[in-house]
Amino acid sequence: MQKAIPYRDWLPTAGGSAAPPPGNINSGEGETIGDAKSVRKLVAENAVVVFARRGCCMCHVVKLLLHGHGVNPWIFDVDDQNEADVKNELSEIISKGAAGNSAVPQLPAVFVGGELFGGLEDIMGAHISGDLVPRLREARALWL
Hints:
Keywords: Cytoplasm, Redox-active center. This protein is of the alpha+beta class and 144 residues long. The chain has a single domain, classed as Glutaredoxin (3-Layer(aba) Sandwich), CATH 3.40.30. It contains six helices and six strands. Strands 2-1-4-3-5-6 form a six-stranded mixed beta sheet, with helices on both faces. A hairpin with a 2-residue loop joins strand 5 (109-112) and strand 6. It starts with 6 loop residues before the first helix and ends in a 6-residue tail after the last helix.
């Protein structure tokens, strides 16, 4: 029987990596942006952005649901090194959008049209009620 390798032991080495390093934004097209300071710009300029933790099953479900609708969201993979910076930036974005709301976002955090849409429960609830597709169309993430 083979021994399972823990995820943290599998991370790529400095010599060569098969996948982009954790903490980078990955558009699915090989483009990456690495610092948390670009979070605000990323949310403002893209129709759908998903802030996710690698290996998280809830984050994976959100990505699958959006891809299933034909949306190609920007994915920001949050890791232990940049989690605090990213959550601070997201808190600032949320507090500017909703006066007096200083909540720390939980991962996955999905932004649609520059505003926080929510996490897995919010995305699934909107999908089940039929509100997700109109919101994605309004944000110009869907063309049909």
